[in-house]
Amino acid sequence: MTDAGRPHRPSGVREVVGYNWPLYAAGALAAGGGWVLARWLPRPAARLVRAGALTAGWLLAASTAATWWVYDRSGLHGYAWLDDLLPEGPGRHLVVATGLDEASRPVAARHPAAPQRTADLYDPALMTEGSIHRARRRVPPVPGSLPARPGALPAATASLDSVLAVFSAHELRRPADRAALFAEAARVLRPGGAFVVVEHLRDAANSAVYGPGALHFLPRSTWLGHAAGAGLRPAAERRIAGLVTAFVFRRAGA
After folding, report:
1. Of 75, 91, 198, 216, which sits 20 to 30 A from 82 (CA to CA)?
2. Euclidean distance between the first and final Cα of the chain, in Å?
């Protein structure tokens, strides 16, 4: 429950636009302002400006529609996809958050018998994106969240069945911090345990709808590289709503 006594509502297009409103405002200004400006320019320049305005308008509309589809209409927040990836269930698990935790509650609701802890890696000195600061102000940490660092997760060695990082690992912008998180996940997992990483990827599909915004995402090869560096093997991979990828990396053994 939230402080107001109402169930928490996972972020949808309204919230995502709110977290990223400067980007949406810039897109709207580029689209509308460019179209108006073109009326006062010579024909060759006007064509270029109108083309830019149309491109900005397309990206604004496409990104909004894609966000609505992924966060409001798909099964992302239902976590049935997690049951498919972890048929044994999450077991004793740790949810890793970096400012906006919307995994702990639905996973706990779906698997009430599975012991859960939440590690909060949020550090405003390292996470400089305005969107994550705005999200943090709007959605407070889940009660009982434990402050942590990428290289120091609050769990004993080989004590967990799974670690879940849902839209959180990409907020660690320094490669060394992401590598430390993967190494820590490998440390705290039991042999055969699963590290679940869910992210948008910097790929053709996300670039087509998010344009330059897709640069905030990381390529698939980056996540595979971090897993390999930590000694975690790829075990499963699933696309959600066409734009989100869920990886399962497992610790050797078992």
Report:
1. 216
2. 38
Q: Are 50 and 38 in contact (CB under 8 A)?
A: yes
Q: Which residues, including other chains, have CB under 8 Å from residue 196's CB and lie 6 or more apart?
A: 82, 85, 86, 162, 163, 164, 165, 166, 246, 247, 248
- CB crowding 160-185: b at 16 or more within 10 Å, else e: bbbbbbbbbbbbbeeeebbbbbbbbb
In sequence order, the β-bridge partners of residue 195 are 163, 249
Look at residue 196 and give its three-state secondary structure.
Answer: strand
Homologous superfamily (CATH) of 77-251 is: Vaccinia Virus protein VP39 (3.40.50.150)
Rounded Cα–Cα distance for residues 14 and 19 (Å) = 9
Task: Please name which of 80, 128, 123, 120 lies closest in space to residue 102, comparing C-alpha atoms.
Answer: 120
Taking only the tens place, the pLDDT of each residue in 95-120 is 999 988 989 999 999 999 999 999 99
Please name the residues in contact with 136: beta carbons below 8 A apart, sequence gap of 6 or more.
99, 100, 122
pTM confidence score: 0.90
CB atoms within 10 A of CB 235: 17
- Give backbone dihedrals phi and psi of 192, rounded to 5 degrees, phi first: 85, -5
| Contact indicator for 121, 154 with CB cutoff of 8 Å | no
Tokens 């996972």 — which residue?
10
The three-state secondary structure class of 204 is helix
- CA 181 – CA 63 distance, rounded (Å): 29
Residues in the chain: 254
Phi-psi sector, 212: left (phi>0), alpha (psi -120 to 50), beta: alpha
- Chain segment 148-162, per-residue pLDDT in tens: 999 999 999 999 999
